[in-house]
Design a protein that fits this description.
The chain is of the alpha/beta class and about 375 residues long. Helix content is about 30%, strand content about 20%. The protein starts with a strand and ends with a helix.
């Protein structure tokens, strides 16, 4: 039992913890209730010969060179800079985040410089010194019309809440570029994809003699007695039998369509600004390295947001409201200290985190734990 560690969850948090512990001669058992490793990053090549990300597109971007160098131990990379367009009306596709082309199309303008666009958008702004919710933040940045076209319908579908009821922390992630910048992550200097997919990356990350992986295995508290310590990425409210109530999540239902015709116009992601049930579509063959075998078939995936309870309890996005009522519930769970358990990852800490943030957070925390237990 000495140095015998249990890790619940084989996503990025669990896998990074497992690798770091294994390299320090801890014996690590990783369990996951799913039948595969890689968590929500899991991908596979389907019958069309195209690589699909089972839980929606995962696009690696960061400016953290330490995270990139760490993951580079386990994969080679393909350069990919993600771009998104929004379908406005029946036939217009405009870039998102909003740039000079978006503004010119929506307002029938012919601006040529970034400064012209900034001055114009400044005239649209509803300046608000007290930012309480997502609507306040967006109105302050881009005004009412652009908010109502690009963010209000999408938000309603995504969160089943109006912008007035969403925390501004959710939309503060949005970057606006009033130049010709088309990249979705313009501020990140490192934008790549694993050359053979995320599942291959995870296979290499978890390939260590001190790591034992058990899939299709649910966590049981009774198993804790077999281990010195447990790092647990399961939903923290579920661990405590929901004693303070549920921590809600939004989930996504995916509709995959295999077709012999390519109507993507060369785009990977097309968002919908309408009131339909879908938020976006992904054309996988346009992502580098994803048209693996056959070249005569194409796959389009449409996304329909829903409550996690309506999708087999698949938890994707923690719900952050403007009054932070669920954050208050999470703090109650977090304050229930467990002697030999630490909660990790998105569900364990009720955070919305990008992949590079999970890796960075996990490296910092597990290395600190290892140092404390030397």
């Amino acid at each position: 039992m000495q140095n015998n560690i249990l890790i619940v969850g084989a996503g990025f948090a669990g896998a990074v913890y497992a690798r770091q512990l294994a390299e320090k001669d801890y014996h690590v058992t990783v369990i996951d209730k799913r039948n595969h490793i890689a968590g929500n990053c899991y991908d596979y090549v389907d019958n069309s010969g195209i690589r699909i990300h089972k839980y929606g597109p995962h696009l690696f971007h960061t400016s953290n060179i330490k995270v990139f160098d760490y993951l580079s131990r386990f994969t080679k990379w393909i350069k990919y800079e993600h771009k998104v367009v929004v379908r406005v009306g029946e036939d217009k596709l405009v870039p998102l985040p909003i740039n000079i082309h978006t503004i010119n199309t929506i307002f029938n303008k012919s601006f040529e410089s970034e400064q012209e666009v900034k001055s114009f958008v400044d005239s649209l702004r509803i300046k608000n010194q007290e930012i309480i919710n997502a609507q306040d933040w967006l109105y302050d940045k881009i005004g009412e019309r652009l908010t109502n076209i690009f963010y209000r319908p999408y938000t309603k579908k995504m969160w089943d809440l109006d912008l007035k009821n969403i925390s501004h922390s959710v939309v503060k992630r949005i970057k606006f570029s009033f130049s010709n910048e088309e990249r979705y992550f313009p501020n990140d200097s490192i934008q790549f994809l694993p050359d053979k997919g995320y599942t291959e990356l995870f296979t290499n990350l978890l390939d260590h003699k001190n790591i034992n992986i058990c899939l299709s295995e649910k966590f049981s508290k009774s198993s804790l007695k077999e281990f010195t310590y447990c790092f647990n990425s399961m939903p923290i409210d579920e661990f405590y039998d929901f004693k303070f109530g549920n921590l809600p999540y939004r989930s996504i239902k995916f509709k995959h369509s295999i077709t012999e015709s390519d109507s993507s116009s060369g785009h990977v992601t097309i968002n919908y600004s309408d009131s339909s049930k879908h938020t976006r579509e992904t054309w996988w063959h346009n992502i580098p390295g994803h048209h693996v075998k056959r070249k005569d078939l194409f796959v389009k995936t449409q996304e329909e947001p829903c409550d996690y309870k309506d999708n087999n309890y698949e938890r994707y996005y923690p719900v952050k409201t403007s009054d932070d009522r669920f954050g208050g519930i999470y703090k109650k769970y977090r304050n229930l200290k467990e002697e030999k358990i630490e909660f990790i990852g998105r569900c364990g800490t009720y955070q919305y985190l990008d992949m590079h943030q999970v890796v960075n957070q996990s490296l910092l925390n597990v290395n600190r734990w290892i140092k404390d237990h030397e």
